[in-house]
Design a protein that fits this description.
The chain has 205 residues and is mainly alpha-helical. It contains eight helices and three strands, in the order H-H-H-H-H-E-E-E-H-H-H. Strand 1 and strand 2 form a beta hairpin.
């Protein structure tokens, strides 16, 4: 059984940047749904793999309908685990240590990285995600994906360490159609210490 990430903060803890109603709906309805649907689909698959391995080997699932179900719900499960895990009421500020240095080497500065990630996130047509990913060599990459896809599915060695959810369910109750305001405000609640821990985990393999 794949287990949904347990929120270590209350639904209203990220106010005013992300409102309580959005958080409760996002977590208890959308994320719970992805988790339950994934578990049902994996029962049909007949084998349970580590979620990273599962999403990195979707082409091995012969049943096209089942493959699509696992892609969508497995992606939704994994993506939201990262999303909720890397937000915090004590977030904000800038990364430190090796992650900060890697960002500087890859993008010039933290502000330049934010600008590029914002462009990718805001510019993603329809539903999707903006991503900061890393590989075992410690290199960083920015990208965006549609729907519940993520960089694992590209099989190029990059693993997400931070994602901005730009599905309307992540922001529409508070921000309406102003996706850009939501994307810019989310940095006030990013837990860069946790992102740095995920960066180190990727490098350790």
């Amino acid at each position: 059984m794949y287990k949904q990430f347990s929120l270590p903060y209350s639904y209203d803890a990220l106010e005013p940047h992300i409102d309580a109603v959005t958080m409760e709906t996002h977590y208890s309805k959308h994320h719970t749904g992805y988790t339950n649907n994934l578990n049902e689909a994996v029962k049909k698959l007949g084998e349970e793999k580590d979620i990273v391995e599962l999403l990195s080997s979707l082409d091995k699932i012969e049943d096209e309908k089942l493959r699509k179900t696992i892609r969508n719900n497995g992606g939704g499960f994994y993506n939201h685990n990262i999303y909720f895990d890397t937000l915090s009421p004590d977030g904000g500020g800038e990364p430190e240590g090796e992650l900060a240095e890697a960002i500087k080497q890859s993008f010039g500065s933290f502000e330049e990285m934010k600008e590029k990630l914002n462009e990718l996130s805001i510019g993603q047509f329809g539903s999707g995600w903006g991503w900061l990913s890393a590989n075992k060599e410690g290199k960083l990459k920015l990208s965006s994906t549609p729907n519940q896809d993520n960089p694992l599915m590209e099989n190029d060695g990059y693993v997400p360490i931070f994602g901005i959810d730009v599905w309307e369910h992540a922001y529409y109750l508070k921000y309406k159609n102003l996706r850009g305001d939501y994307v810019k405000n989310i940095y006030n609640v990013v837990n860069w210490k946790r992102v740095a821990e995920l960066y180190e985990e990727v490098k350790r393999g």
